[in-house]
Amino acid sequence: MAHDKRLKAAYASFERSKVYPMAEALALVKQNAKAKFDETIEIAMNLGIDPRHADQMVRGLLALPHGTGKTVRIGVFARGAKAEEALAAGADVVGAEDLAEKVQAGEIAFERCIATPDMMGLVGRLGKILGPRGLMPNPRLGTVTMDVKGAITAAKAGQVEYRAEKAGIVHAGIGKASFTAEQLAENAKAFTDAILKARPAGAKGTYVQHVAVSSTMGAGVRVDVASIGA
Fold it and tell me: Most exposed: 20, 109, 175, 176, by fewest CB within 10 Å?
């Protein structure tokens, strides 16, 4: 109880310029998540990179230890047996030309896109639509694969995709306010460890410049970079 009161007082008076160890920052954010829905806890890392250069891009997929707490809608481009496999594995939308037509019409009813290799000729024509939304299947991310079931299972289990934006920021949801503090801390560590390991060869100077955590409706809390082992 006393710990909760200290957190509440700390959140009420925290300065945006002040930084906190990761565990304390997460506790502050969790304490203040008072919306009527289960708020998403997010992390953002400002990296010393220029994603416009290929040798400085930071991108990948990560399976969080405790998942994200979010139900992800999966779209799969496949035909025949692989389409049936996708449906059996729990894909929300499966198709080929028919699915491509829906995407072209603006009907994008999925948040993760998977495709079998033979479908990339068709999917490639949707690049201008799927690319800006971060939905373009990529073999390096495991979303262009013949193991459709495995890719869907991983996505449903709480796999998150991260990609550096133009300003060099990577961000992701690492859980829900209903998660325990320990679950959030372990998910945060898994995410920050992945980003640290993904440091591109072209990155010069300070790699991790700023880190912050927040909830959907709450203010951001700055994290001490040293507390993530950077």
Answer: 109
